[in-house]
Amino acid sequence: MPAAASPELPRTEALRPALPDVLDDKVGLRLDEPDEKLKDYARKVLGETEEAKTRTLQELKDTIYERGEVTPYRMDDSFLLRFLRARSFNVERSHRLLKRYMRFKEQNPSYQKNVDPEGFSLIGESDVMTVLPYLDQHGRRILLYRIGNWDPSKVPIDDLFRATLIVLELGIMEPNAQIKGGVVIFDLQGIGLQHAWQVSPTIAAKVIQLLETSSPMQTQAIHILNESWVFDIIYGLFSPILADSALDKLYFHGSDLSSLHEHIDPDHLPKRYGGTRHEVSYTAWLEALRNKNVFRRELKNLGYKIDVDESLDEY
């Protein structure tokens, strides 16, 4: 399996949230506008300036109307800006990403139903996936999967896709995530043939769509831990359809945590991976967000079957 070189990224401090009820080690999303440090990063890395935002937002809207190739759920600036940021303000590439995003949603309408926390209780209880409540040393979100804990007889693979899509849809509300993206850790301890049998070329393509080609959330790195010969079978389905740019984001660590620490500082990792931090379950993460109307409204505006509950706080 190939080993990728570490990307040269400026070392930055994780952003502290502006809202007092969202702490670095608790569940929440940072919805405040970028501070000067993040704006400077966006300008240097993405070419983002106020002039560029104003100009490209109008160009993207004009392209959508003139070509008529896609009908987005929304046309507001905050929605379209996440696609421009994901493609460094290149209007043509941003338009293609928007088309792929909408096509994925249209081809998988079932993913927008049954998004109550109870529907994901088995994923949370089984510790199959979660979103870490803190950022890495570069200020990026970390999505963690433990595929060996997944029981395909109890949790259909479509539920994993649905759970992942919710993470991406809500996570990309953060300006910080739009600008810096996120990283994924796949811990394959305990993976077996029952998992390999679930992966077809169609499933492999769908994983790539979610994490790489059809979401405005930029996946900056994918770290593979505890891979085995079973993973080699699965990887054989992925590697032929991965672009070189995606292959460059893959890092294989085996059981060597010091290798992982070369990319993610232990101060930003859970204890089980040689770090100092705690975790929350996926169910707890989703419950915390969906009990706030700002997130319920976001999902509803993106086509999900969910209503705003006036008895809940806005944020």
From TrEMBL:
It comes from the Eukaryota. InterPro entries: CRAL-TRIO_dom, CRAL-TRIO_dom_sf, CRAL/TRIO_N_dom, CRAL/TRIO_N_dom_sf. Residues 119-281 form the CRAL-TRIO domain. CDD domains: SEC14. PROSITE patterns: CRAL_TRIO. One of its GO terms (cellular component) is membrane. Signal peptide: none annotated. One of its GO terms (molecular function) is phosphatidylinositol bisphosphate binding. PANTHER family: ALPHA-TOCOPHEROL TRANSFER PROTEIN-RELATED, SD01558P. This is Alpha-tocopherol transfer protein. It comes from Thrips palmi.
